[in-house]
Amino acid sequence: MADGKIDFEVLRGLLDDDTAGPMERYGLVLPGKREAQLLAQTPTTATLEPDRENSRDWDTTQNVVIESDNLEVLKVLQRHYFGQIR
User: Fold this and answer.
1) Stated pTM of the model
2) Are 46 and 68 in contact (CB under 8 A)?
3) Cα–Cα distances in Å, from 53 out to 2, 5, 46, 50, 62?
């Protein structure tokens, strides 16, 4: 679900690998892809906290460095920045 809308293609893929769909002639198999998609749909309790002590020019800079697991950070940022990150 993205921005309150259901992505039926993702849902179909999560529910069953053998769901009828367009015939694919070639493909790339990524082990663990389905599990990663399921994990991406789980809610997160993570939060981002500024580290002002180790930051340089915290009050004037417009840059932020984030250290964390990519998936957890993306879950935290997704709601606020959906459609704005390029």
Assistant:
1) 0.50
2) yes
3) 35, 40, 21, 9, 16
